[in-house]
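Complex 226.
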Amino acid sequence: MKKEYDAVIVGGGPGGSSTALFLKKNGVDKVLLIDKAKFPRDKICGDAFSGKSVGIAKELGIAQDFEKVPHEGVYGVLFSSPKGTMVEIPFPGAEGKKNAKPGFCVRRINGDNVLFQNARKAVDTLEEFTITDLLWENGFVAGFEKKGRGPKKFLDIILAYEKDRGAIDGLKFISTPSRRIYKKHQLIRPVRQGFGMAVVSTSQGIMTDKEVRKKKIGGQVLFEIW
Ligand SMILES: Cc1cc2nc3c(=O)[nH]c(=O)nc-3n(C[C@H](O)[C@H](O)[C@H](O)COP(=O)(O)OP(=O)(O)OC[C@H]3O[C@@H](n4cnc5c(N)ncnc54)[C@H](O)[C@@H]3O)c2cc1C
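Predicted structure with flavin-adenine dinucleotide bound:
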């Protein structure tokens, strides 16, 4: 079954997962949350979950779920100099109340997972998916459907429409598996007077023709779309 979405969020970290939850809470029903990783996934971080963040978790009704994963309560922030001078700044509301722990420390592998699993209950999610960012960012697609498993996994892309007219008029493959076309940036011209775009594989990732001219790097021209 194909599905279309009002909002597709790429990245299921704290930013993406809480956006998904807030959208759902505010009546946006068709939300898809995509992440290239599989949750739980770890990230480098100081792992502090401030009083402000706890407030947001309370607003979303999921603060109690953080209590269920390993964590330490945090009273405030302590700055110290090499000479040992220390300044202690309690979180707002915790002043003079050492037992009050409005914030806490929770490893991202646990904390981000609490957020993502709550988002998963509320909206559609796709893990282990790096989306075709450029098509999305440039307004050519309106939704995605995950199909297949393992190496045969693929995305069925739902094309964007504006007033019954498709956002895509045409697509031309420039490179093929047997004939790869590489061009210098000066030779990668705007497509259809700038109304279309070329998609180029460069040493710095996949980019549009506009980006390669701006960054002055060439690459393999994959296809043109307009
Ligand atoms: C060293 C360090 C210490 C820090 N300490 C703290 C701290 O103590 N307290 C604090 O509050 N903040 C801290 N931060 C900041 C905090 O880590 C970030 O603010 C927070 O992670 C941002 O969340 P996010 O959801 O925007 O991004 P992320 O948590 O980075 O999530 C982005 C997600 O997007 C996914 N993704 C990326 N590209 C794609 C793609 N193309 N397709 C699909 N998915 C994709 C990734 O897999 C990832 O899951 C620290 C940051 C660093 C670097």
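The chain has six helices and 17 strands.
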